[in-house]
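[09:14] KT: can someone run the structure on this one? pasting the chain below
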Amino acid sequence: MQHAGGVPLPAPHGVGGGAAGWSAPAPPPGVPPRPQGHPVAPHHPAPPPPPRGGPPPGWIGPAPQHAPAPPSRDTTGHVRLPPGGPVPVPAPPAAGAGTGTATLAVLLIGPAGAGKTTVARHWASRRPVPTAHISLDDVREWVCSGFADPQSGWNDHSEAQYRLARRTCGFSARNFLANGISCILDDAVFPDRPVVGLGGWKRHVGPGLLPVVLLPGLDVVLERNAERSGNRRLSDEEVAGIHGRMAGWYGSGLPIIDNSKLDVEATARVLDEVLGRALSSPPAW
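[09:31] RB: done, structure tokens below
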């Protein structure tokens, strides 16, 4: 009696190890004879080893996992960034197209409460090409212990941290631009204070930086400042003083947007139109 695969079956269990009249067949070649009276397990040849690079034949489980090859310097995570350099003036877009798909660097200037950060972030998020938003105040506040708050008085420490934040923002902007990503920075730059004026931004970013002033009315900035909290909220006297000094941008040749009666969406749209014109005829500064 044989198994369907051709391997002999063991003898039926009984007295003397087999049924009456039953005789065990001869073992196949290469298999030692079994002792009488003891059944033997069927002989099955060992399965062949699975082929290298794939699962064995008939495998129905998940594919075997192999350790990934270590990444090379040319793969994601090991990309060598091009060195950041001064951003040149980009080519002007088509007439009436705003900034289009131009890669550009923008500096949005304005007093506290003008809406610089909100408008800059909104403009950056609505562009059809990759665009980053860099806020100087956010970078200054990376200093957690020992932060020199200008509200406590402008001194050597606050000025040093301001300069350091500006250089960091400038490096970040050049790094984004070197990789084809536009950027918009926002900062309260004073026209009557050269030490922290536009010259520093031009040195850190490049001559292609496009400055635009966001300057709503005093009543608007006072109302927006009142909605702030923490060290971003200033006294009414400070807000009025900053707003008055920002009025010095009139007559400077820089484009100025009065967003007193504009919401964020409308202000961002006007900003894009102003920047489109500035690309065609960059302001002298």
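[09:33] KT: thanks! The domain at 105-278 is CATH 3.40.50.300 (Rossmann fold).
[09:34] RB: yep, looked fine to me
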